[in-house]
User: Fold these one by one.
Assistant:
Number 1:
Amino acid sequence: MDSYVAPLDDIISALRTVGLDEILTLPAFEGIDRATVADVLGGFAKLAGEVIAPSDRIGDAVGAMLDTTTGDVTVAPEIATAYARYSEGGWTALSASAEFGGGGFPGLVAAANREMFGSANLALSLNPVLTQSAIELLERWADERQRSVFLARLIDGTWTGTMNLTEPDAGSDLGAVRTTATPIGGDPANATRYAITGTKIFITWGEHSMTENIIHLVLARLPGAPEGTRGISLFIVPKFNLDDAGALLERNGVHCLALEHKLGIHASPTCVLQFTDAIGELVGSVNGGMEAMFSMMNPARLAIGLQGVSVGERALQQSSAFAHERRQGRSKDTTSGASLIAEHPDVKRMLLDMAVTVDASRLLVYLAVAAADVANNHPDAEERARSQRRMELLTPLAKAWPTDEGVRVASLGVQIHGGMGFIEETGIAQRYRDARITPIYEGTNGIQAIDLVGRKIARDNGLAVNELLDEISVTIERADGIAELSNAAKSLSEAVHQCRAAVTWIVEQFANSADAVLAGATVFLDLVATTVAGSLLIKQAADHVEDGSPDATMRVARAEFFAFDRLTRLPSLQSITLGNELLTAGLR
Amino acid sequence: MNVIVCVKQIPDPALPGALDSSSNTLKRDGKLILDESDSYGVEMALQLVTAAGGGEVSLVSMAPNGEVSGLRTALAMGAAKAILVSDPALKGSDALTTAKVLAAAVQRLGGADLIIGATESSDGYTGTVPEQIAEILGLPSVTFAKKVTIDGSTMHIERQTEQGYDEVTSPLPALISVTAGVVEPRYPSFKGIMAAKSKPLETVTAADLGITPVGWDGAGQTIVNVSQAEARKAGEVIEDDGETFTKVVSYLENLKLI
Ligand SMILES: Cc1cc2nc3c(=O)[nH]c(=O)nc-3n(C[C@H](O)[C@H](O)[C@H](O)COP(=O)(O)OP(=O)(O)OC[C@H]3O[C@@H](n4cnc5c(N)ncnc54)[C@H](O)[C@@H]3O)c2cc1C
């Protein structure tokens, strides 16, 4: 009941709806066709289902352990084996650049694999997510020597990467980072080595012994650096120092002082890392740390958004299996004995709600990743710029909505299990516990909503969002012409009107009454994300109907369910515009 | 050292199967995958070739509708090339015809030092095809191989029996059938999957191999009837009174397991 079988049909259908075929025609992906993508996904699905997923339960039970005398961190051996199979299989390389041994696949295909990894074991999947972020950051910002030393071994999985941003007083506001970097000989700009000192907290997979080395990317301040985010630089700090050829030397001055005890993702060590004159090297420019971090922030946020999909899918599979075993009460289809709870309309509705929400979340994140692929690889500069705008707009939507919904879906999963849902034995409780971190890390969902209304809507006067809404109108027209989808198209059309009204209000108000806009930001994010997700479900259903696919009836039902259930009860304009004063007045 | 593995591509056992009521045979018109039983043979072949320090693993398969996805899986694991025999005329072939076809495919590949098959396939099986292939090719055959080592032109086999295992020595070339679970099949790697795309895979018909008649016409057997497998009996529940282990021991003794 605790098993995971990758939903390849759903994944491939979603990839198509967000434009995989168009992406495969880009020159950068020459030689990669649909069949190759299916083979790669199928190969990874097998590993995810048969090797990674069985490590999930035991990993949760065992957690991570710190040996306080040596500072070594260990996890369940099953976790280490699963990681070994993953890295031996060369899967880290999938979307990395061919120059350093990568497979050169679209990020969209890597995202599908990442979704499966997250469903199979969310806690372990964070390790490759962070390594991938480190790879993308170094591909973009590292100099030639750094790339040759670090990239190949991160890409082949022999080393893993971490992100060291957070400090006790620097969470959502990284301007407060206090870790220092002191040039070793020479002035700040010319030094090749820096001594890093400070304490970082909440560092995921900050210490472990699954690989021979760990590459920490650390935000720190140089002497005399300006206050705030403009004075932060980025450093590479390896767990073991390296000689010029990249061979391992002695242990560097970075140690795990403690592990956090957490609500979920137990198998992922969350470390307090102490840096004491640890030797590091600068990546990118002096005081350019935030800019470098920002370049990986979008992909990292999308990776976390995907975790909402992952955890929801696993919860759905578990709950559906349970509902087809547990007998209770009698449905009208049963004449004697108790019926399966899956036959009760209320349970069916919960299952369908879960399934449709997972589909919708998957489409939303994939759409954002597809935009990134086009932005990074399209030969035409104008198209690249348009897709970059699209990706930047979609990122907060695709991080926040699927993770909030992932928690809701996991909660529905617990509900379907009844009393047994509250009991750890069934395993569904783990989904709920694991899901809860996803709206928090990699920028809380509150911060995503602020990013959306400020940087992504007000700053360009609604240009990117209106482009997106215009495109949804095309879907509405198309669905209107398909008899089975015309009712859903009506609900979508009304949702788009509501979005436009809210966008207009935000663009008008932001400059002078930012607080009023911020008071409604989270609700506004929900409005837009739900609308976009709904449009994608309708588009997906239209694709299936037009193809005469055997899944067409199911896809139409799912699109209608979402349209009637969700698009018709979106946050109202009144809710978005109720203002900051009301909030203040209402609190004691 | 060159090894040829006979692999079957079968309907996914995770999906509900169906019988064709007109012929009493399994419907095989959907997507097919590599029979797990054969993944052990592929793995053993890859290990033997590595241990020998050279050579390659080739595959032969007979499947409807030009199906190659199971072959691609085995190529992704590390096999070098494959022959698929796919031909509408083959529908209805019995075990002996299958053996003739596979033997001819083996010959088309120029033979090998060792031919490997699975003891039996998972979808519909007689458990006789490998031995029939050996007979047609005039090779010694050893069934139920669980461990194989090669020493020059001699092969040492541990052959699974009910009580333990036989130690068998055979000259090469030879044919063995391997039991499931004797090695741990590797997972196709990303690089392996990509490399499999460009590995040689030839599709031929029965006529190309000179085998006629085949299919229903060539079959020396018919399936006269099929019946439902007997439902599994409920297990026995033993209440633990602190001495339960004695009951477990005598239960196992009864089965002659200890
Ligand atoms: C399990 C786990 C793993 C993590 N892994 C890593 C890691 O690998 N590397 C790393 O660097 N960090 C990591 N983090 C840190 C994580 O990214 C931060 O916890 C997160 O960004 C929130 O920061 P904070 O905890 O300081 O919360 P705070 O910033 O104190 O936020 C508290 C609340 O206030 C809200 N808030 C804060 N500022 C504002 C504002 N300006 N406007 C409106 N609302 C605001 C937030 O939305 C939130 O609801 C991890 C955290 C956890 C729990």
Note: The first strand of chain A starts at residue 65 and ends at 66.
Number 2:
Amino acid sequence: MNAFDFAAPTTVEDAVKLLGVPDAEALSGGTDLLGRLKDYASSPKRVVYLKDVKALAGISGDATDGLTIGAGTRLADVLADKAVKESYPALWQATLEVGTPQIRNMATVGGNLLQRPRCWYYRAGNGLLAVKDGKSLVREGDNRYHAIFETDGDALFVNPSSLAVPLIALGAKAVVAGPRGERTIAVEDLYQIPKSGKDSELTLAPGEVVTKLVLPPAKGLNASYEARQKQAHDWPIVLASVNLNLDDHKVASSRIVVYGVAPIPWRSKAAEEALAGKLLNPESAAAAAAASIAAAKPLSMNAYKVGLTQTVVKRALMVAMGNRYWEG
Amino acid sequence: MDLTWPEKPTLIGTKVPRLDGLAKASGRAKYPSDQLPEGTLFAVMLYSPHAHAKIKTLDVKPAQGMPGVKGVVAIAKEGATLRYQGDDVAAVAAVTEEQARDAARAIKVEYEVLPHVVTEPQAMAPGAPEIVKGGNVRKGRSQDKGKADEELAKADVVVEGKYALPVITHVCLEPHGLTAKWEAADKLTVWSSTQAVQVVAGELAEAFQIPVANVTVLTDYMGGGFGSKFGADVWGRTAAELAKSTGKPVKLFLDRIQEHLAAGNRPSATGTLKLGASKDGKLVGLIAETHGTGGSRGGSNFPLPYVYDVPASSRSHSDVFVNGGGARAMRAPGHPQGCALMEAAMDDLAEKLGIDPVQLRLMNLPPNDPRTPIYEAEVKIGAELIGWTANRKPRGKNGDGPIRKGYGVALHQWGGGGTRDKKVSCTITADGTVELKSATQDLGTGIRTVLAIIAAEVLGLKPTDVVSNIGNSTFPPGQASGGSTTTASMAPPCLDAATKARDALFAKIAPALGATPADLSLKGGRLLIEGKPSISWKDACRKLGTASISEMGATPEGLASTGVGGCQFAEVVVDVETGVVRVKKIVAVQDSGLIIDRLTWDSQVYGGGIMGLNYGLFEERIMDPTTGVMLNPDMELYKLAGATDVPEIVLHAYEPDDQKARGVIGIGEPPTIGTAAAIGNAVSNAIGVRVPEWPMSPRNVLNALAAASKDQEGKA
Amino acid sequence: MRKHDPKNGEEPGGASRRDFLRGSGLAAASAVLTGAATTALDEARAADDGPKVLSGEVEITLKVNGEDRKTTVEPRSTLLDTLRNRLDVTGPKRVCDRASCGACTAIVDGDPVYSCTTLAVTCQGKTIETVESFDVGEQGVPHAFHQNDGLMCGYCTPGFVTACKALLDKNPNPTLDEVRRGLDGNICRCGTYIGVLQAALDAAKAMKGA
Ligand SMILES: Cc1cc2nc3c(=O)[nH]c(=O)nc-3n(C[C@H](O)[C@H](O)[C@H](O)COP(=O)(O)OP(=O)(O)OC[C@H]3O[C@@H](n4cnc5c(N)ncnc54)[C@H](O)[C@@H]3O)c2cc1C
Ligand code: FES
Ligand code: FES
């Protein structure tokens, strides 16, 4: 880890100001940033600690009016929130499975959304896209944990945020404070697929901080399901969150979002379309799951993820229906 | 009279908590990496970022000028070839560790990057760059017994399978390294995280050309070795060198990355096995072609055939050299690999023969072997404990739901005997102190406590009344802790020392008590005197006056033995839609002669099973063919079980009287051998398809299922 | 070489946090910043506009196991390296150094966290508890680990004991499943989990007896 300057503002305004210099990076729980600094994958000159900004933390509102979650809220506090547990199970379940008890005591919602990819080529110092001498290290190398969608380009990493997936499915918005004031964007708009090595996968401008997440009122059904190798503190291989609005048992609208398959949290429009207007049942879930992988183009070592994605999408839908058929 | 183990022990074989357990559990135990003598400098290694490179120029000057830096050494020379990522280049000592890290990065090295091979396929490909003279593949002489090809041609049933296990690394939680302090120009003290204090002392004495008596290596505690911590290593010598040049104590422990890269690993194993049997399940022959990589060092061979009686076999093994850190012994070197390959083939054969896998194994134990009846008894116990007959269904007949249950079994063998030249001293002083000394060390196996139990048994005391001093190279010669040899080497001289000390004490104090030594005995912390009231141990010792007793124990005949076996069973559930495997239960049945501390014995067997579970489900060193680096040098994508991954483990110590009569045998290694094999077999039983590659990850399981269904389609 | 002088520029009043930052912004005379390159101008501006920017070496006070401990760190120094290298508090161990193994677990303001992935400068004013402060008597967690042999080499043990203590403080009546989940942030290579799980259940009982 290279040396850096450090500041701990107590207001959003000061934080924005302090971040408004080149090479400054925010520090929240540190569970992503500090590892990256130790690996020299990032070396900011200034680190601005956000956890003393009290205004960033806390949860307010309820399921009827919608929920506001401060970006500085720790994952442990998200889990402890009754409204989240009861009305936004997609978020609760995905949060429960992030990391470890210690990580959930440290990590914050904002940090989780804005953590950088865990792609091992990126973390080893090969740059975000890991293209070397015109060749993609990922494409030619070990890509077992990489993307299966949008794989024609050079961005082959997967977005690492477990929370982005349910938040996007739930239609959450992010409130962003920056040098030019405040703006509100959809959580999915925090992400982009970088076109070149100069782009980031995040859309925030320098100096911007996410201050809170606003969840619309909880209607319909929402759920998450993830598959992972280890039970203890492992990353998901694939995670899906679904949010379904039903009208007379038929799916009026839905959002189906998948982790682990693309450089952005992957909104499966194909699955959503397959479900539209259908009665919600195991058959329509299976059909939507099948549709979700139609556009998959796996890399050399991750074809296994295609079938896995189909299963995980199906199971997220089944959980929403209250049918955990695999638990017997 | 020959010295024997007590016939009716009160302590031996019971569950005795460790003497140092509370120190460890309360954070008070000071490990070598916790030592911080006054003025300690922190040292950091610079290691090769490349898999294969020549050092064109190496300039340490920029580091010397950095803040806080007190010493810099170049380990590699200009012109030297670095053979793997993580190979040692230089080291820096500075006032703070942060400063040392900065300075190490400031060292200027110009590398000429050379072509590399880091995986076996890469090393074995036609036209691959040769990284060792004579080629990357060194084929050993084929070991033949009988005419295996002829026997297989005649066999009723033959199976052919290809199985593979990856390279794994030791991941000792305490990194390799030491803290070094020069007491005088020719007198060195080091706190080393090692399995062999005396080996480290010898190596450092040699490196600095000082008498070994002037080197004190201290290892009161150490955070895991598993076979990888027998020497001072480059970094240890470097720390001592930096301590010398700076005149300050220097602490140097590897970071986790270099720990994975350079501090040892278990070689991979890949094999094509052709195993044949008669219709009724008698093995007739095995032809096995195997290879593995021990990195830049070779040494990847493993025992095969394993356990079973194979009348005719032909075995050839090739060492594949890659640009990776050298292999080191790792908990039962070679056996987990040999066991997994053999047991997979046995199961596949049982499947084809339509014979119960347990039966097939029992049928093929070596005739006239003393181990055979033991295995038979153990397998019977194990089968019962896992519910084999009641629960197990034939392969692939585990329903058609997403979750399939399966059962697997594996047998293993190990030596575990000791050496006969080690010593323990036992000193009794007038204040009642009993002190044992020996230059062995406790890796967590519990030898410190085992020695105290033995002395306490002889002296009628509690184990906590005995001071068990080990982990000091200047003590009487002790066993290096490897090969499960520590207890078998150290228990006999300990019994001898304590017995001699007791006898010397009796001889000395009997006259003052108006008794003869034959009238005296020790029990429950008291000295019993024939025909007189007993006195306390302390009062008895007080009779020594200014004298003390000090006896050196050697190794009498008949107190230790070698050669153990055992079996393990696994129950798994596999989710065939996600490929996720969960181990539900492990049964471990193990013999190991006379057990001294049943509590630490249990821990070894539990721990062996859990290490085997990691090998079976999670671990693999992942190398990148393109850049030549390890992609998961961490504890995150290098996966290790946590609490929720650990299943119910049922263990059974097989110790009828004839086992106890064999004396002490080591237990560190055997219980880890068969677990991965049993898990692999349980998975194939569950899903009806052999998963040929370990670990049993979702990827490997789903790939095996996909390949099988493609096969089916092809046939249809 | 850069120094921070509290007399430079205005101090924002109010929060005690700032007071700390302000007070500890005094760089030691030897402060040399190798990585930072913000210009003196930037810094002056920041100092004018808001909270102090720390760099170089910083003197801080940490409340460790009930005792105020003064030491000098850099902003990048982790809590773990500060405890071990500077304060000789070596219960927490450095194993992965990447928030993956739990050996460095310390309890900060009541919550178990990874001290390897926490900056020391962010811990001033907080309560830091390490394994050394726990009750070693029969009601304590260390005792239960000892009796159940929930340790072999023992290098992971302080982390497990700490995670366990934190778990029981919040949930004195855990089920086996809750114990497993509560200890999921810790890894043991020797494989002591069976003893560890029993130790946690026993410690829960013993603590109630207290
Ligand atoms: C062993 C292990 C397992 C893990 N498993 C999972 C998993 O399963 N799923 C998962 O999602 N994650 C997982 N993680 C990652 C972990 O969840 C994230 O690191 C964490 O959520 C990040 O939050 P933080 O507050 O610690 O972020 P920090 O590390 O403090 O910050 C992360 C990034 O976000 C930026 N940032 C933080 N807050 C803001 C803000 N308010 N505005 C603007 N920028 C901000 C920072 O500048 C930084 O770039 C795992 C981590 C480890 C070590
Ligand atoms: S050392 Fe901190 S989690 Fe491993
Ligand atoms: S006891 Fe050795 S790592 Fe846990």
Note: Chain C has a mean pLDDT of 83.
